Amino acid sequence: MKPAPFDYRRPETVAEAVAALAGEPNAKVLAGGQSLVPLLSMRLAAPAMLVDINAIPGLDTIAVESDDRDGGVRVGALARHSAVLASDDVRRVQPLVTMALSHVAHATIRNRGTTVGSLVHADAAAEMPVVLTLLGGSVDVEGPGGRRTIPASELYVGPLESSVGHDEVAVSAYFPGLAPGAGVAFEEIARRHGDYALVGAAALVDGETVRVGYLSVSDVPAVVDLTGVADADLGEAALAQLEPLDDIHATADYRAQLVRVLTGRVVRSARQHAQREGAQ
Amino acid sequence: MSEELHDLRVTVNGATHDIRVPARRLLSDALRHDLGLTGTHVGCEHGVCGACTILVDGAPTRACLMFAVSAQGAEITTVEGLTNADGSLGPVQQAFAECHGLQCGFCTPGFLTTITAGLRDNPRPTHEEARDMVAGNLCRCTGYQNIVKAVERAAEIQANA
Amino acid sequence: MTTKLMGQKVQRVEDQRFLRGQGRYVDDVAVEPPGSPRSVLHAAVLRSPHAHARILDIDVSDVLDVEGVHAVYTYDDLASCTPQMAEPLPLLIPHPALTHGRTQYALAKDEVNYVGEAIAFVVADDRYLAEDAVSRIRVDYEFLTPVVGIDAARAATALVHDDVPGNVGARMEQTVGDAPAAIAKAPHRLELDLTVERSACMPMEGRGTVARWDPDLSRLQLWTSTQSSTGVRAAVAVKMGLDLGQVDVITPDVGGGFGVKINHPWPEELLVPMAARALGRTVKFTEDRREHFISSAHERGQVQHIEVGFDDDGRLLGLDVEFWHDHGAFTPYGLIVPIITSTQLLGPYKPQNYRVVFESLYTNTVIVTPYRGAGRPQGCYAMERTMDAIAKYLGKDRADVRAVNFIQPDEFPYDQGLIFQDGRELEYDSGDYPASLEKIKKLVGWEEFPAFKAEMAAQGRKVGIGLACYVEGTGVGPYEGAHVHIETSGRVKVATGLTTQGQGHATVFAQLVADELGCSFEDVEVVTGDTRRMPYAVGTFASRAAVMSGSAIHLAAKRAKEKVLKIAAEALEADESDLQIVGGVVSVKGSPGTSIDLGTVSVLSNPLRYAFDEKSKAATQFSVGDPGKPPVAEDDEPGLEGKDFYSPERATFASGMHAVIVETDPETAEITILKYAVVHDCGHLINPMIVEGQIHGGVAQGIGGALYERMAYDDSGQLLNASFMDFLMPYVTEIPDGIDIDHLETPSPLNPLGIKGAGEAGVIPSAAVFAAAIEDAEGIPITAMPISPSELFTLRHSREHSA
C-alpha cells in the first residue's frame, strides 16, 4: 500500500496553486489528505501531480460574516475540522455545523482533515456535504478565470463528483447562519462509533418549513422538504422521495427503516432546538 | 527515470533533521526508515487503526495519512519522545505499565501519543471522556479495559507530579 | 522466605521496551536509510486478482528495466534455487481422513485458486518501487468458475481442484455409542441448522520476514513474525537445500498472532531467503493490511446440522452432528480446526451417545487455519444452542438443563471416548462445572433477570440474557523445552523455543524461575523464539505456552538449582538439605553468614577460571572438586545450566462460562451489551493480571466476531471488505465498559504447576452467548452468526410477514 509516484508542488499563493493545476490536467489538490491519501496508498487513484495547499497563508480562517445576507460563517480551505468544531462562533452562528462535525470520523482525523476538503470530496456518506446542502451554503473556488461561488445545490453532480473544475481550488465554504426561531438537529447511526454512517439525518426547522438531509442513503447528498407533513408520516414522506441503497453493511430495507426512525427523531429535536433558541 | 527528491526539514522529539525524500514517501515511512524511529508502527496504512499516530505541532495525527513533504517545518513528537529527560517512563507510559494497558505492544505507541495530547488538553477527564480519548485507536489484544484504566491512572500521576 | 511470585500480579518486564518505542518487530529489523550501503531491499508480491483462473502467460519484461528493481521471480524461477522450492508447500499436519489434501506453490503454477494467491515476487530498493514494478507485470488469465461459500462447494457444480471430486478434502466421522438409535427412541427429539461465517485473527502487525545470507559463514539468518520459529527453520532449511545448522530463525517482537502466524512456511518465508541468497543482500517483506486480508488466512466458516434426543429433564440421550467446514483453497494446516470443532463441541457435558461427521470443503477463497479458539467457538455454538433449544422445548430454565448434563467433579478424569487434535484420547483431567455455573449465575444476576426483563418490557425496552459453557483442551504436546543458564554475573538467562505475541512470557516465565531458583526476579532474562538459543520447540498455539514452556522452564530451573546446591554444598562444606537460596544467595539455614551467591557458584561450576571479573577472584576462597578426579566429572558438565523438556501424556482441559445481557433497540435493531460476565477456570494462575488481560482481549475479539466482523465475499470470490474501514474490528466504543470476571482454580494433575491454558478462552463462547441473548430478547430463533442490526431487522421483518 504505497502511492504511485507523482509530481509535487507546494505553492504559497492561491494563484500559484491555480497555475500548477492549469498545467497538469491530472492534478489533485492536497489539503488535509485524510480521504485522498488512503486512495493514493491503495492506488485507487494515481494523479500525476499533487498541489499541496498547506503552505498558503490565510486559508485557515473561520469568520462570521455578520454583514452578509444571512449572517453565516465562512470557513477557509485549510481550517481543520477540529478547529471548526471548537469554534464558538460556528456553534453560535450555525450549530448544525458543530453538531455534524462531532460525528466526522475520529478526533485524530479531524485534527488534519479540512471541512472544505470534505465538502469538495463529495462523498454522500460524509456529514458535511449534506449539511451544506441542507443549509443552502456554498463553496468559493478560484480558477484561471477568477473566483466564483458554487451553491451547494450545484456542487454535487454524482458519486464522489463535484462541479469544482480540475483547475480550480476551493478556497472557502459558506454556511448560512441559523435564522432566529429556527432549529436544527443531527443524528446518525453507524456500525462503529466514528465510522461512516449507515444513515445520517440533519434537520432544519424554520417556522412551518421542515427540511431534512440524509447521508449514506443515495449516492449524492439528499435533501427532502417535509413541510406540512404530519409527524406520524414524516418517515414515509421522506422515503417517498428517496431510494436507499444496499451494501455489505445494510440492506435497502434496513436503511429505509433508519430513515423512518431518524427522520422523526431529528425533526423532533430540531423543533425542540427551535423552541429553546426562541426562549432565549 | 528516478524520482525527484525534496529537501525536508523537520524537528522530531526536539532534534532537527534534514532529509531528502520523494514526494510520495509517507511520513510514517520517513520516520521509520529515514530517521530510524521505529517506535511509530504501521498497522493499516489507511488511517483507521491509529497505530501510527504521532503529534504534529502538538496535535495527534495519523503519520500514514501525511506525506513527509507536507511536514515541512513541523514539530513532531513520536513515542520515543514521551520518555522523561532522565530516561524514566513518562506519566502515560508509566500508567500503561501499571495497568497492563498493553499486550503485544504494536498499537501502543499510537495510544500513548494520543493520550498524551488528550491529557494535555483535558488533564482531569471523566470516565466517559477517558474512553472517548482512545476511541479512534484499534487494539486487538487488550479489549481496551486496561487502556481506559491507564488513561485515568495517567491523569492521576500527572496531577500528583 | 521471600514471597512466591506465582500467583502475583507482577508488572511486565517487556513493557519497558514497548512503552519507549524500543520494541523490535520484524519491520524494525535491518532498518537502514535508503541509499546507505547496507540498506535492505524490499519485496512486493503480485497477487491474483481472480478467485479462479488458469495462468496463460506472465510477462515481466516491463519490470526488468525499472530503476531500483533488483529481481522478479515467477514460478519458473523457483527451481533455480532448489528443485524442492518448485514443489508445493508442505502439508504440515497430514491426517488419514484428509484424503485430498492440497497445498499451493510458493508462486502460482499454471492456476490461481483465490484472490490474493502469490504469482510473482519483486525485490527493489524500497517497497514503493517494488509496488510500481508489480503493477507493470502483465498476466493473461483464462477464467474458471469460482466456488465461493459452503453451499457452492457442496453443490459441486464447479470444482476448485479438478482432481478433488465434490470439493471434499476430507470426510471424518467419530462415534461413541449409537447416537441415531438413541435419538430414535428418545422421549424428545429436536433438529437445528446453524451457520457461522468467516472471520480472521487480524493482528495489528501483519506477517513479515527479513533474511540475510552470510556468505562467509554459509549461514542464513531469518527474522519472521511467526508462532513457530523452529517450524519455519526446518521448512526453510529443506526448501533452500541447507542443513538445519545453517539456518537461524529469530522471532522478534510479534505484534499479535491469534493463530494466523502458526501456519508456515508462508510463500514469502521461502521467497525472501531465496532472494537474499541469490542477490547477496538483506531482503525484507512486510505484509500490508490489504495483503493480510487476502493472502494470510481466515477461520470460522461452518454450516451445522444437529439432531438431538433427550429425556424429560433435558438430559442428552443421543447427539448426532453433521457439519461442513470451509477450509478455503488449500489445506496446509490439515484438519485441525474441524477436528477440534467435532471433539470440543461436547463441552462440559456427557452426551452418552455421540456421532459427529464433517466434510472439509474446498472453496476459491483464502485458506483457513486456526484463529483463537480454533474450531471451539463453532463447536460451543452448536452445543450451547442445542442446550438452549432443549430448554425452550421443555419450558425449563436454560441453566438447569445444562446442569443435568454436566460431568460431575467426582467423575474426573473423564474420557469422552473420542480422539482429540493431538491424536490422544479426549480425556478431561479436572474441573468443577457445577461450581462454575453457580458463580456465573451469581455474577450475571441470572435469578434476578426475569424481574429485570419485565421491568424493561414495561418501559418498552427489550433485553435478553445468554449463557454458554465451554471446555478447552489446552497445552497440547508434543513437548517444549527450556534452558536456564546462571551466568557468573549472577544473571539468569532463560531460553524457551516457542514464540511470544504479547502474552508476557518474559514476565511469567521469569516469575517461575525466580520462584524455583530463589534468584531475584529482576535478574532473570527470558528469550523466546530464537532457534540459536533453543533449537527444539513446537510453537505458540492451543493455549499451550504457559502449560508447556512454563512447565519446561520450571523443570529446567529445578535442574539448575540441583547443580547450584551440589556445588554450594561443597563450597560451603554443608549438607545440600541445609541450604536455602534467597535473593540469589545460597546460605546455610540458620547460619546466614555462611553463604555464596549464585554468580560465584557459576564461577565454580567451570574449571576454566580466568580472572576476568571480580566474581572469579572472589571464587578463589572456595574450593570445589576432588583433586583425585578429572576437573569435569564423568556425570557432570562445565557451567551452571539446567535444561529440560516437558512432554505431557495429553492436553489439560480448562473450562469456563460466559453470560451476557443485551438490549435490542425496538426501532433500529441496534444491539447493546448491558453486562458481560466470565467465570474462568485455568487451574493455578501464574499472573492473574495477565490472565485477566487475556480474557479481556478474548471477549473483545468475541464481541467483534459475534456482532461486527465477517468476511464479505461476493459470488466471484472478491473480498469486498478487505480494509479496516469495512471489516469492523471493535474500537473501545463497541466494547462494554467493564467485564465482570471470577476465577475458579481447579489445578491440573498433569503438570508440576497445576496450570491450564488461558489464551483462547475469552473468545470461545461468544457466538453462542450472543445468539442466546438476542434470541431471548427478540423471541426469534437466531441461527446464523455473526448478526448485524440490519440482519436482525430482516429477521424481525420476516417474522412479521410469516405471522
Greatest interface and its participating residue counts: B-C, 60 and 62 residues
Amino- and carboxy-terminal Cα gap of chain C: 72 Å
CATH architecture of the largest domain in chain A: 2-Layer Sandwich
Low-confidence stretches of chain C: none
The CATH architecture term of the largest domain in chain C is 2-Layer Sandwich
- Average per-residue pLDDT of chain C, rounded, comes to 95
Strand content of chain A: 25-35%
What is the count of structural domains of chain A?
3
Order of adjacent strands in the largest pleated sheet of chain A: 4-5-10-6-7
- Give the count of helical stretches of chain A: 11
Low-pLDDT runs of chain A: none
Q: What's the CATH C level of the largest domain in chain C? A: Alpha Beta
Q: Give the strand tally of chain A.
A: 14
Describe this structure in words.
The complex is a heterotrimer of chains A (280), B (161) and C (803). Chain A has helices at residues 14-22, 36-41, 81-86, 88-93, 95-101, 107-112, 115-121, 127-135, 152-155, 234-239, 252-279, and strands at 7-9, 27-30, 49-52, 62-64, 73-76, 138-143, 146-151, 156-158, 161-162, 169-175, 183-190, 197-206, 209-215, 222-225. With 280 residues, chain A is an alpha+beta fold. Chain A has a 5-stranded antiparallel β-sheet. Chain A has a 4-stranded antiparallel β-sheet with strand order 11-12-13-14, with helices on both faces. In chain A, strands 1-3-2 form a 3-stranded parallel β-sheet, with helices on one face. Chain A is globular, with a radius of gyration of 19 Å. The mean pLDDT of chain A is 95. By secondary structure, chain B is of the alpha+beta class. Chain B is built from 5 helices and 5 strands; from the N terminus they run ββαβββαααα. In chain B, a hairpin with a 2-residue loop joins β1 and β2 (15-22). In chain B, α2 (91-99) packs across α5. The relative contact order of chain B is 0.15. Chain C folds into 3 domains: 16-144 and 201-295, Aldehyde Oxidoreductase, domain 3; 302-476 and 649-802, Aldehyde oxidase/xanthine dehydrogenase, molybdopterin binding domain (Aldehyde Oxidoreductase, domain 4, 2-Layer Sandwich), CATH 3.30.365; 480-646, Aldehyde Oxidoreductase, domain 4 (2-Layer Sandwich), CATH 3.30.365.10. Helices cover 28% and strands 24% of the residues of chain C. The N and C termini of chain C lie far apart (72 Å). Chains B and C meet through α1, α2, α3 and α5 of B and α1 and α19 of C.
